[in-house]
Automatic annotation (TrEMBL):
<dbReference type="InterPro" id="IPR042489">
    <property type="entry name" value="CapZ_alpha_1"/>
</dbReference>
<comment type="function">
    <text>F-actin-capping proteins bind in a Ca(2+)-independent manner to the fast growing ends of actin filaments (barbed end) thereby blocking the exchange of subunits at these ends. Unlike other capping proteins (such as gelsolin and severin), these proteins do not sever actin filaments.</text>
</comment>
<keyword id="KW-0009">Actin-binding</keyword>
<comment type="similarity">
    <text>Belongs to the F-actin-capping protein alpha subunit family.</text>
</comment>
<dbReference type="GO" id="GO:0051015">
    <property type="term" value="F:actin filament binding"/>
</dbReference>
<dbReference type="InterPro" id="IPR002189">
    <property type="entry name" value="CapZ_alpha"/>
</dbReference>
<dbReference type="GO" id="GO:0051016">
    <property type="term" value="P:barbed-end actin filament capping"/>
</dbReference>
<dbReference type="GO" id="GO:0030036">
    <property type="term" value="P:actin cytoskeleton organization"/>
</dbReference>
<dbReference type="GO" id="GO:0008290">
    <property type="term" value="C:F-actin capping protein complex"/>
</dbReference>
<keyword id="KW-0117">Actin capping</keyword>
<comment type="subunit">
    <text>Heterodimer of an alpha and a beta subunit.</text>
</comment>
<dbReference type="InterPro" id="IPR017865">
    <property type="entry name" value="F-actin_cap_asu_CS"/>
</dbReference>
<dbReference type="InterPro" id="IPR042276">
    <property type="entry name" value="CapZ_alpha/beta_2"/>
</dbReference>
<dbReference type="InterPro" id="IPR037282">
    <property type="entry name" value="CapZ_alpha/beta"/>
</dbReference>
<dbReference type="GO" id="GO:0030479">
    <property type="term" value="C:actin cortical patch"/>
</dbReference>
<dbReference type="Pfam" id="PF01267">
    <property type="entry name" value="F-actin_cap_A"/>
</dbReference>
<protein>
    <recommendedName>
        <fullName>F-actin-capping protein subunit alpha</fullName>
    </recommendedName>
</protein>
Length: 262
């Protein structure tokens, strides 16, 4: 029974749109106050899998979590805890990672920082995670949360670069629009290609992969708009002339039926 409850909560929490995890958490706790612990565990699992953006350019995700449960900022050599439901950073402490940094780590951070600032319309947060001198992860997350205008959106890309190996990555886009309706767009794309193990080559790989994904998404929206969405619209004649409903009502079948019933 406990596992079934956890499964149901997990499904509900996983459906939370970008930036709306706190609202979903609060609603569930209000409805099931005796299940707070189960709900919190489900929230933690989701947050660490998808990653959450924290104030101060922090990220909390599986990739930068250590055995103690804290999250690393490898760029500034510090670690911290995170509140998953409110997306807040706390208990920050300076620390030196055990992992060995590639010799070009600082240059790679500058390259990724420059790329993120020039290619994302809203602020992007990133982390470059060293595993050894020959392997790094790059995590990029950009969110646009405009709840006053009823939309939230998020782009998350996670890449693995390793010397003498193919580069691998996964790009996830999640957009929610809910003004007088409820529209959700989700896109998930895996990428894998040859890539030299250098800062310029790594950023070039990221840019090409994300440009291709963006173009594919735009093309899909164009097809939807010109075909499927177009067929959903009700076709009505446009005469650009006013109708005198008082005089015209009897000329239409519906009006005739109404008049005859009186």
């Amino acid at each position: 029974m406990a596992s079934e409850i956890s499964r149901i909560f997990t499904q509900i929490i996983e459906s939370a749109p970008p930036g709306e995890l706190e609202e979903v958490y609060n609603y569930l706790v209000a409805i099931f106050p005796d299940k707070r612990d189960v709900i919190e565990k489900c929230v933690i699992r989701l947050a660490e899998t998808h990653g959450i953006v924290l104030p101060g350019e922090g990220i909390a995700c599986n990739e930068n979590k250590d055995a103690s449960g804290k999250f690393w900022d490898y760029k500034q050599k510090k670690k911290y805890n995170a509140s998953y439901s409110t997306a807040q950073m706390f208990d920050v402490e300076p620390s030196t990672p055990v992992a060995k940094y590639p010799t070009f780590y600082s240059e790679l951070v500058k390259e990724v920082d420059s790329y993120s600032k020039s290619h994302f319309p809203s602020d992007a947060v990133f982390e470059v995670i060293p595993h050894s001198s020959t392997k790094v992860n790059v995590i990029l997350i950009s969110e646009k949360l405009n709840k006053s205008n009823f939309y939230t959106g998020r782009w998350k890309a996670a890449y693995t670069f390793e010397e003498a190996q193919k580069a691998r990555g996964n790009i996830v886009i999640d957009v929610h629009y809910y003004e007088e309706g409820n529209v959700r767009f989700k896109f998930d794309e895996a990428v894998e290609k040859e890539c030299d193990f250098s800062p310029a080559a790594i950023v070039r790989f990221i840019q090409r992969a994300e440009d291709e994904v963006q173009l594919r998404v735009v093309n899909q929206f164009t097809v939807l708009n010109q075909n499927y969405f177009k067929n959903l619209r009700r076709l009505l004649p446009v005469t650009k002339s006013r109708i005198n409903w008082g005089a015209a009502i009897g000329n239409y079948k519906l009006g005739t039926d109404v008049i005859s019933e009186q």
